[in-house]
Amino acid sequence: MNFVHSTSGRNNHAVVVTRVADMQWHAVEDNRTVGRGDSSRRPDGRIFISIDAWHGAVFDRIADAMLTDLPTPLYTVVDEADHDSRSAWERAGFAAARREWGYLVPTDPQLTGLGSVRPPSGVTIVPAGEAEEEPLRALDRIVRDEVEATVGWQTMPAEVLPRPAGTTVLDPSKYAVARHMDQYVGLVRVAPLTRQPRIGLIAVRADRHRRGIARALLAHALGALHRSGTASAWAEVNESNAAATALFESIGARRAAGTLELVRR
């Protein structure tokens, strides 16, 4: 690989930025590594990049090198409260594309008001780990196709995980599903992270919307976490997803963070 970009740095020392691997860049000044850049391709094909550098000038050198070597569009993610990082990326030509809210979600039914929520008539909840794999995968494909045909899957929060081509359900044991007769019609995925479980996805087939299925799935998932001794979970919601925002805020979820996705086209 070894594409080399050299320019003057601080104290008249040259900053040499080298592409040391297919998706990695190093910045070296006076024989010291002063910054790194990384890129990754998400399952939807988009390339996300990140830069770790102590000084703004080094950040700019690495950004210039990566932008020279990589095709556009390129994406990155920053904490909305990190104004310095956002400014650095804007210097490199990136602009805000979307905002994602992070919610701290209580699990106690006395706080969420979900203790009395039951699935609508004819619908049952299949607990995590008990769903049949093939119907689950089929539902996941239906949901993704419906999202892609409307707002686009790139607007959804993404778990960036290595996935075999065409595989979207990596671990079926993380999913609880809503079943109507012999069909799976909704799902919720909870990643049981040690520090704080993460509600990675909650979705219902388009032809079953507005029947209370999503609320029942959330009640089930949060109830299971509460019974296991977990006080809260984490969830991320696209700012434009009014239905999901209303659902989480109606159960007492507290907006605790904001993330910006930036793009350079």
Question: How would you sum up this structure, described in words?
Answer:
The protein starts with a strand and ends with a strand. A 13-stranded mixed beta sheet has the order 1-2-3-4-5-6-13-7-12-11-10-9-8. By secondary structure, the protein is of the alpha+beta class. The radius of gyration is 22 Å and the shape is elongated. Helix content is 26%, strand content 37%. The protein is built from six helices and 13 strands.
- Beta-strand content bin: 35-45%
What share of the residues lie within helices?
25-40%
Query: What is the distance, rounded to the nearest whole angstrom, between the alpha carbons of the first and last residues?
Result: 24 Å
- The helix-and-strand class reads alpha+beta
Order of helices and strands: EEEEEHEHEHEHEEEHEHE
| Poorly predicted runs | 158-162
The radius of gyration computed from the alpha-carbon positions, rounded to a whole number of angstroms, is 22 Å
Specify the biggest β-sheet. Answer: 13 strands, mixed
| Spatial sequence of strands, sheet with the most strands | 1-2-3-4-5-6-13-7-12-11-10-9-8
Give the rounded overall mean pLDDT.
88
According to DSSP, the number of beta strands is: 13
Question: How do the strands and helices of this protein lay out in sequence?
Answer:
Layout: E1 4-8, E2 14-21, E3 24-29, E4 32-41, E5 47-53, H1 56-69, E6 74-79, H2 83-91, E7 95-106, H3 109-112, E8 123-126, H4 133-149, E9 175-180, E10 183-191, E11 198-204, H5 213-227, E12 232-238, H6 242-250, E13 254-264
Parallel strand pairs: 5-6, 11-12
Antiparallel strand pairs: 1-2, 2-3, 3-4, 4-5, 6-13, 7-12, 7-13, 8-9, 9-10, 10-11
